[in-house]
Amino acid sequence: MLTLTLAELAAITGGELHGDANASVTMVAPMDKAEVGHVTFLSNPRYAKHLADCKATVVMVKEAQRELCAGNALVVDDPYVAFAKVAQALDITPKPADNIAPSAVIATDVVMGNNVAVGANAVIESGVELGDGVVIGAGCFVGKNAKIGTNTKLWANVSIYHSVVIGTDCLVQSSTVIGADGFGYANEKGEWIKIPQLGTVRIGNRVEIGACTTIDRGALEDTIVEDNVIIDNQIQIAHNVQIGYGTAMAGGTVVAGSTKIGKYCIIGGASVINGHIEIADGVTITGMGMVMRSISEKGMYSSGIPLQTNKEWRKTATRVHRIDEMNKRLKAVEKLFEEQEKES
């Protein structure tokens, strides 16, 4: 169990401490469940009324709520960001692997930096380069000539295909596949002819990729994920997609081939993005968004039909099927109205 003093919390968060600098905490807890030895935070002002009764050793708050705290208070610019930093400092999640497991299969020409760890039954093929502090979890596969940067971690059963490049300080969760073939085929008289996928995947620095996500290699050029991107679980990213700096993608999203997503975009869960289009910087797509055309201006975009009762949905569906008929009738009425205006 890790222990931090409140003075250390102030240094980690850059906050201003009001209270006992020598008091200590061991974990972060929600405000309503926090006890002595816990640190909590107030990110939503609606819950400020509970501060007086909070039992936590210290509460991270904005200046406006400091006087409401009955005990120690750590004043920060953004309590939620402070929570993230403190949670990292108190994190006791084990590493995916420690040392080099005897059952790991590592080619003789693999270049390994200092303090590399490889878990049981992992396979690392010829020509691979692993930077300092890289951790490869149990059962992982790293294909020929792949490169993995300093301090990057792969959890168990991740597959990294040949020639894939992953930057520094990345985290890849279990069962993700990076560099599998993109969906490329030609059709000759009903017979599918496979198109070899000759590009690769290039992942930037400080990228996090969730479990069971797939990122396909490029057909001729590379699939690219820039720095500081976060990708949730069970996402499909097709060949030649480019994802810009700082973009976040929620679970279940599907991105078709050769689409370019800009910087600082937020893609809601279960969204579907068409291929060969471009999405501008700073675009937010709400959950279950269906993006069929390029988006050239930043902003928030939505699609899909919110949940209704089945009875309401049936009425809506019936009306949708009648839109063409209704449009023709509306045009006929407009034409009749125009003719009457001309006559008068």
TrEMBL record:
The keyword Transferase applies. One of its GO terms (biological process) is lipid A biosynthetic process. The keyword Oxidoreductase does not apply. Keywords: Acyltransferase, Lipid A biosynthesis, Lipid biosynthesis, Lipid metabolism, Repeat, Transferase. Transmembrane segments: none annotated. Its EC number is 2.3.1.191. GO terms for molecular function: N-acyltransferase activity; UDP-3-O-[(3R)-3-hydroxyacyl]-glucosamine N-acyltransferase activity. It catalyses: a UDP-3-O-[(3R)-3-hydroxyacyl]-alpha-D-glucosamine + a (3R)-hydroxyacyl-[ACP] = a UDP-2-N,3-O-bis[(3R)-3-hydroxyacyl]-alpha-D-glucosamine + holo-[ACP] + H(+). The active site is at H239. Pathway: Bacterial outer membrane biogenesis; LPS lipid A biosynthesis. It comes from the Bacteria. Catalyzes the N-acylation of UDP-3-O-acylglucosamine using 3-hydroxyacyl-ACP as the acyl donor. Is involved in the biosynthesis of lipid A, a phosphorylated glycolipid that anchors the lipopolysaccharide to the outer membrane of the cell. This is UDP-3-O-acylglucosamine N-acyltransferase.
